[in-house]
Amino acid sequence: MTGRSVPAVLPPALRAWLGLTAVLAALVVVVLGVLYAGHSESGRVDRWVVEPMADSVGPPWRRVALALDFLGEPAGSVMLVVATVAVCLLLRRSRAAVLVVAAVVMSVGTATLLKHLVGRTIHGADNLSYPSGHTAFFTALAFVVALLATSWLGLGRTAGTSLVLAAALVAGAAMGWAEVALSAHYPTDALGGWCTALAVVPAMAWLVDRVADRRGDAGRPQRR
């Protein structure tokens, strides 16, 4: 026993703000899901962003969109997750490695479940679209990496929260743009995927910390 405490994956200073963010994001997911349940066409907000069913980019930006889209596919996402887990283990942050897997699986799993519950489609009845799983995945991964960086750098509440939300925003915007540009999702699908990750990841980080802390307490010898 070294006596050193294991850094939390959800720093205490960030819990209140990220918890509030998670609640607000969950509300957005629910509201959009209710508004677009059973729809098979773009809504007013979608048409304001981009014309429906139209690939909105050409070369060379189309290649960028395709590359981002690949990172959300099974092969690309597994590659990113394995690389991120490997970095966590090299840094001796096993708790963060667990969170990477848990956050990604739960974010994508939640998005998949919501797709079947909402039933919004694009390009035919077999293509469920709300929320975007690609956007949920990429946002969740960036969120966790930013949490790890916040802990590693010892950032405070303001700087840490800003870094985490900025990373999630950039990742979500990038993947969301790619999915909309390729006409794979409506803009509101991308927004729903982004908010899904914002709602799920803080909850999973809190849960990982709680379970790990309880296991650690159970393994410590009691003082007499």
Explain what the structure shows:
- With 224 residues, the protein is an all-alpha fold.
- The chain has helices spanning 12-35, 44-49, 61-72, 74-90, 94-118, 133-153, 157-181, 187-219.
- The longest helix is centred in the last third of the chain and has 33 residues, at 187-219.
- 42% of the residues are buried.
- The model has no long low-confidence stretch (mean pLDDT 90).
- From the alpha carbons, calculate the radius of gyration and give it in angstroms: 19 Å
Strand count, sense and barrel status of the largest sheet are:
none
Instruction: Report the principal-axis shape.
Output: globular
Low-confidence stretches: none
Content of β-strand: under 5%
What is the CA–CA distance across the termini?
Answer: 17 Å
Kindly state the number of beta strands. Answer: 0
Mean of all residue-level pLDDT scores: 90
Structural class: mainly alpha
Query: What's the order of the H and E elements?
Result: HHHHHHHH
Q: Helical residue percent?
A: over 70%
Number of helices: 8
